[in-house]
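Anyone up for a design puzzle?
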């Protein structure tokens, strides 16, 4: 489970950076969409890890709070790029 969490956590910023370097807004949006999928995957793994004997609930809730904040920022960036701003 930890490897899956780590893979999803690393995939998200890697896709944001990779998309930014592509140079086209369309490709950047595509990579941001993949990053959002990785964020959802991370949240799912965290929720599963919360089950008994995996991860303490308090720790999972703290990280989920951060993923929620990152998700809002990512959605705002996607929205701005789709509107043609930025």
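Challenge accepted. My sequence:
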């Amino acid at each position: 489970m930890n490897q899956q969490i780590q893979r999803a956590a690393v995939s998200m910023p890697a896709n944001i950076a990779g998309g930014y370097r592509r140079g086209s807004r369309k490709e950047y949006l595509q990579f941001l969409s993949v990053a959002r999928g990785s964020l959802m995957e991370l949240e799912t793994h965290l929720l599963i890890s919360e089950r008994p004997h995996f991860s303490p609930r308090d720790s999972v809730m703290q990280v989920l709070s951060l993923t929620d904040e990152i998700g809002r920022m990512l959605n705002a960036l996607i929205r701005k790029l789709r509107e043609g701003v930025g």
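A detail worth pointing out: The chain has a mean pLDDT of 91.
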